[in-house]
Write a structure and sequence with these properties.
Helix content of chain A: 40-55%
Number of domains of chain B: 1
Distance between the termini of chain B: 30 Å
Largest interface: A-B, 34 and 32 residues
Low-confidence stretches of chain B: 1-7
Strand order of the largest sheet of chain B: 6-7-8-3-9-10
Strand content of chain A: 15-25%
Shape of chain A: rod-shaped
Number of strands of chain B: 10
Order of helices and strands of chain B: HEEEHEEHEHHHEHEHEE
Oligomer: heterodimer
Number of helices of chain A: 14
Number of domains of chain A: 2
Radius of gyration of chain A: 37 Å
CATH architecture of chain B: 3-Layer(aba) Sandwich
Mean pLDDT of chain B: 88
Largest sheet of chain A: 11 strands, mixed
Helix content of chain B: 25-40%
CATH superfamily of chain B: P-loop containing nucleotide triphosphate hydrolases
């Protein structure tokens, strides 16, 4: 006859031992459930929150770099730093730049913007912002057209009196079509409207403004230099371009330029996670410790209760190690069940909070798999002493009495 | 195993000069000097008052305890030199126990209780259940297989315990006060089961303080103060 029980039989015996007392099983797992739930919930919510923060840096924000002269740097008497007109061309040569264009606000004094000159019905006009840009600006801010077209480098070079309207500005001026070549007046000067913008990213003020080519602004408003350079980079290149841009634009004095770039990924995330989470992880660890002690306690109690069963099993041919294995496996099962339940609670917690806040729940798969295993490990550690205790029971002692 | 054991059919139990002392103080000489041979198919009763050392003798016979001195051969195998692990296997394969207090697992069905005795000797699961059913039919409990032991009468419980002891096909059935917790009618039923087993060739050793139980056996041995009296 073959010696020794199969592993499956030992598992069966352990399972039956655990299942024999369901109420006790539930109470025993409680500590582990709480601990694992706290750990999974904390880590899950941390990951979820971290995901939300990175989500807020959407594509547009993550690829936008803005270069401006550093106003604070210019000392008295020193010539203020200016962006060169050819900054877009210089920047475009860098690897990783998709588009670049200048952006400037024009000082139009008290001039109002009107769609029709001199008519009584429109005597007031609108105090709209007037901006100037290079042809590349629209591409850099991902502008989409509602109607018409954008101005190009030719308009810029010839200083043509054409403008593009933001959609809100067009609404206020009562212009919604450009095929009849409507004109707007800034002060007394007429400009042909060639297009209306529908949307932009980053520079929302473009939608409320009248935008003309740089060349035109130079002639009509003596624009000396661009206010800012808008750069659209490839995904992931923003940090690199932010470092290279000042040198490319002004090699002699790069520090006089101020660069706005999206913050490094992860920097914010860790900042938000660490403070709150340390506390909850600590709580979870304490709960796990208590849970482990609970399992050890109840398993030990169960060993004392089942002395006669242990004796019987020994009489039926179980060796010490079989008895030890049974109690160890029982305690691992309890820990694993606790871990499983705790993981479920933790995941539900994460999903619930995410749902309440309209977040996308994010949970590392390794966490969902690892947490029940952690529970099993706690059961293993907790069961070691009771299992040893059980294996040391002499069958004679165990079978005596009633 | 010796060559002699192969040549001549060895007795099931062979105890030579066995002694068991429990170290004191004071030292207790539970078994002073016992020579006991139980042949194949014998039905032996060991009778004695409490404190006479009969429980210790049962433990020694059942390999639950080690003699301080002497030789104990079970089926020709010298057990005194065996390690604990090997003794456990031998115990599981060669000895069936019937206890006074039944020792059934309350949370398992009658069938599972009987099948349990084959777990540690490595009988495959399917075979275990089939053999457990046969054993339960043999003791007249075919209709109780899926019951919980707690719902059975004392006599029925003891019959479950007998079925459990028989199912692993042991060389020796060791019963410790098997009727101690039973009324007269149930006790009689159990003794009838023992008689049947004896006729079928099973080797039985029944330990009791009850002369009535003892007299049912083919051979009686009395134990007094740790020594056997014939």
């Amino acid at each position: 006859m073959a010696g020794g029980p199969a592993v499956r039989d030992l598992l069966d015996e352990a399972l039956a031992g655990v299942a024999a007392r369901p109420t006790r099983l539930v109470l025993t797992t409680l500590g582990t459930v709480l601990g694992i739930a706290a750990l999974v919930g904390t880590l899950g919510l941390g990951q979820t929150a971290g995901g939300q923060i990175t989500q807020r840096f959407d594509l547009a924000a993550a690829t936008r770099v803005v270069v401006q002269p550093d106003d604070k740097g210019g000392q008295e008497g020193e010539a203020a730093t200016q962006l060169p007109w050819d900054a877009p061309e210089r920047i475009s040569r860098l690897n990783g730049v998709d588009a670049a264009g200048t952006f400037s606000a024009l000082d139009v004094g008290d001039d109002l913007v009107r769609s029709v000159a001199g008519l009584d019905g429109q005597k007031d006009g609108h105090a709209l912002q007037v901006l100037a840009g290079s042809a590349g600006l629209f591409d850099a801010v991902r502008a989409t057209l509602r109607t018409g077209r954008l101005f190009d480098a030719g308009h810029d070079a010839r200083a043509d009196r054409v403008v593009v309207l933001g959609k809100n500005a067009a609404n206020r001026l009562g212009i919604n079509r450009v095929d009849s070549q409507p004109a707007v007046f800034i002060g007394d000067q007429a400009y042909t409207v060639i297009g209306i913008l529908d949307s932009v990213t980053g520079r929302a003020e473009l939608l409320d403004a009248v935008i003309m080519p740089n060349g035109t602004a130079k002639v009509d408003y003596d624009l000396a230099a661009p206010d800012a350079l808008e750069i659209r980079t490839q995904v992931g290149a923003a940090q690199l371009i932010a470092g290279q841009a000042p040198v490319a634009i002004d090699p002699n004095n790069p520090s006089a330029l101020k660069v706005d770039a999206p913050p490094k990924q992860g920097g914010v995330r860790t900042g938000v996670e660490s403070d709150l989470n340390a506390l909850f992880l600590l709580l979870g660890a304490v709960a796990l410790l208590v849970g482990g002690l609970g399992i050890a306690n109840v398993t030990l109690l169960s060993v004392l209760e089942r002395i006669s069963e242990i004796g019987l099993r020994r009489a039926l041919g179980a060796a010490r190690r079989h008895v030890a294995a049974q109690f160890l496996v029982e305690s691992v099962i309890v820990g694993f069940l606790g871990g499983l339940l705790g993981t479920a609670v933790g995941v539900l917690l994460t999903v619930g909070v995410s749902w309440g806040r309209d977040w996308t729940p994010i949970l590392d798969n390794r966490l969902a798999v690892g947490a029940p295993l952690l529970g099993a490990f706690i059961g293993l550690v907790a069961g070691t002493y009771p299992a040893w205790k059980a294996s040391a029971i002499e069958p004679i002692t165990a079978l005596r009495g009633t | 195993m010796t060559a002699m054991a192969v040549a001549i059919p060895a007795p099931v139990v062979e105890m030579i000069g066995v002694r068991r002392f429990f170290p004191g103080p004071p030292e207790v000489q539970a078994i002073r000097e016992v020579d006991l041979v139980i042949g194949q198919g014998e039905y032996l009763s060991i009778v004695g008052p409490s404190g006479s050392g009969k429980s210790t003798l049962l433990h020694l016979l059942g390999l639950l305890d080690n003699p301080t001195d002497g030789v104990y051969r079970l089926d020709g195998v010298d057990t005194s030199s065996l390690r604990e692990r090997r003794r456990a296997v031998l115990r599981g394969q060669r000895i069936g126990f019937v206890f006074q207090s039944f020792h059934l697992l309350d949370h398992r069905t009658v069938l599972e209780n009987v099948a349990l005795s084959m777990v540690y000797v490595g009988v495959p699961r399917k075979e275990r259940l089939a053999r457990a059913r046969v054993a339960l039919e043999r003791v007249g409990l075919a209709h109780r297989m899926e019951f919980a032991p707690t719902t059975l009468s004392g006599g029925e419980r003891q019959r479950v315990a007998i079925a459990r002891a028989l199912v692993a096909e042991p060389s020796l059935l060791l019963a410790d006060e098997p009727t101690g917790n039973l009324d007269t009618a149930n006790a009689e039923a159990i003794l009838e089961v023992f008689d049947e087993l004896h006729h079928e060739g099973m080797t039985l050793a029944v330990i009791t303080h009850d002369d009535h139980v003892s007299q049912r056996a083919q051979r009686q041995v009395r134990i007094v103060d740790g020594t056997l009296q014939w």
